[in-house]
Amino acid sequence: MDGISPAYRVNELTPDPNVAFDPKVVKDYITYAHRLAARGLVNSSVGGMVIRAAHPDYEQGICYAKPQGVSLEEVEAEDLVITDIPYGRILAGERATTVGHQMNREIMRLRPDVNCVIHLHHDETIAFLAAGFEEIRSFSLTYGYLMQKPAHYLPASINVEEDVAPIKTFIADTNCIIMRRHGFTVLGRSVSEAYHRTCVLVSEVKRNIIVEQLCAATGRTPEYITDEQLAHMYAHGDAVMYPKLVRKDR
Predict the structure, then answer these.
(1) Cα angle: 240, vertex 242, 244; to 5 degrees
(2) pLDDT (tens digit, 9 = 90+) per residue, 129-153?
(3) DSSP assignment string, 187-222
(4) What is the residue range of 124's domain?
(5) Beta bridge partners of residue 178, listed in sequence order
(6) CB-side exposure of 237: number of CA atoms within 13 Å?
(7) pLDDT tens digits for 185-225?
(8) Is the Cα torsion angle 42, 153, 158, 97 positive or negative in sign?
(9) CA distance 238 to 70
(10) H or E stretch including 119?
(11) Taking a C-beta distance cutoff of 8 angstroms, is the pair 176, 149 a contact?
């Protein structure tokens, strides 16, 4: 993988006395991890979340992550570890990260605008695609404005948690990776945005299932948001979702 030096190994314990846990980042991590679990989106210890924080000694920042064997539902402040981004060295904490952490780090290495990655083995997403549907279509007026880029679909034969090489070929053009038989990975400029995108994605999957069931029962045709409408939503997402205040001169 580009940027990886043979001098270091993933999960090599390399404590850095200049790296300390930031209480605010820790609080955000635990808060949003438990929110994901409260929505029923967490399965066992699989899946995960990483948050990037700036650090003066690390050009690409540092990553807060949960260790292997701990679920987002269970994770507490004392469980977290901090790694660097290029190599996966453990800078703070004493437990190994999951194999999926190399995917998270590669995404952040290639996307400096991304500061949070959420990866979940979502039941309905796996089931919907396993039922033979090729993609998740949009029926709502919120999905496109929040996601802001088209989803990228990976076949079941490609696992970018184990082999991150394919990520560089598509990651610039998406904020959501749909992984057949696996789940999804959502990107955000902040943990809040990644969480909101996760929520709107799982809602859209649920709408797909409901619409397909109702249309199958009634013989009606689903009314999808068109590709042209979605492109407009992608382009105007910030203006709609994050409008800036305009101060009136007095």
Answers:
(1) 105
(2) 999 999 999 999 899 999 999 999 9
(3) EESSHHHHHHHHHHHHHHHHHHHHHHHHHHHH----
(4) 23-241
(5) 153, 184
(6) 17
(7) 999 999 999 999 999 999 999 999 999 999 999 999 999 99
(8) negative
(9) 35
(10) strand 116-120
(11) yes
How many Å apart are CA 135 and CA 121, to the nearest integer?
17
Q: Which two tokens stand for residue 26?
A: 């820790």
Res. 2: pLDDT tops 60: no
Distance CA 192, CA 122 (A): 19
Task: Give 20's contacts (C-beta < 8 A, 6+ positions apart).
Answer: 92
Residue 159 lies in a domain: yes
Query: Full-prediction pTM beyond 0.90?
Result: yes
- Does residue 133 lie within any of the structural domains? yes
> Quick count: other Cβ atoms within 10 Å of Cβ 55?
18
Helix (H, G, I), strand (E, B), or coil: what is residue 156? coil
What CATH number should be reported for the domain holding residue 60?
3.40.225.10
Is 54 part of any domain?
yes
**Phi, psi for 126 (deg, rounded to 5):** -60, -45
Answer positive or negative: Cα dihedral of 226, 151, 207, 234. Answer: negative
